[in-house]
Structure prediction request, 343 residues.
Amino acid sequence: MIRNGLIVVLCLVFLFGCDQAPKDDTASVEIPEVTEEFPGQVKLDSLTALLEKDPNNTDLLNERAMVFLDVDQTNFALADVGKALLLDSTIAKYYLTISDVYFRLNKPNKCKNALLKAVELQPDYKEPLYRLAQFELYLRNYQESINYANDMLRIDARDDRPFMLKGLCYKELGDTTKAIENLLEAVTQNPDNYDAFVELGILNYSQKNPLAEGYLKSALAIRPEGIDALYALGMYYQGADKLNEALETYTRIIEIDSTYSSAYFNMGYVQYQYLQLYNEALANFDKAVKVSPKYYQAVYMRGLCYEAKGDMTRAKREYAYALELNPNYGKAADGMKRIISKN
Prediction:
């Protein structure tokens, strides 16, 4: 029942800025609250039933478009929001929906144009500015992203999201001081900003600042099973020669996600490099390769372990395999040269 009507709408060509007469509100119906715990199909059935009674209700069409996006039915989402905009092109939030559709369809120019139209229609609406800032960050246009974030702050100086975005932009631009300043402002405005705490931990770790541990633990207090925070904390412990804490942290990651190959690799590296536990290290490098078969660095580390154990035949085999996976991997080539010279 949904499909036939939507296919007709998909045949329409949508142009931004088209001026249509405002909808007639006399036939509108109240949109019921649809709770998030309902599965997507239940939401669709509910909205479709309402649209059968009022097929030109643009709010209902936009709502159903968002549900279609939730269930990865992008073309149907485009049909609904496209029809909503054909009926009424003056509502900023509809352009947010179609920008999401175009992003999913890998049409960045149309995505950006939709967001710009939303800003034009409602200049004090933060959400399109936020998405434009995200969009420019995604495209690595960092100064443009910062500019949109500043536009958001002129509307609401207590919103943590623009500070977060500015922190990420300055990080990419190599300005660590400004990055940390903005991330600190983000957690000041929102003490539950997990991502900002993780970034603060990573930036301070890169500067060998012991504050890194506290920031990462703050992130884990918000999200105890946050793997990115745990991995960064493990790296901090490893760099600070707190090897037992590092191994415990990597083990915790594996307990949460047994396919996290970098945790196996780092455990193996600590055991090989610092503890000379070659058999234990080999076991972890084996697990890393089992999870990620093209993990040539782990294959190379297996070669180092065998070389340290005096098994040159297996070491040579591992170095050769690492070069097979990545012919330009210089460390494996050097390993082969060492084995050949020893023979």
User: Anything to note?
Assistant: The chain is about 75% helix and 0% strand. Confidence is low (pLDDT under 50) at residues 1-38. The radius of gyration is 27 Å. The longest helix spans residues 40-53.
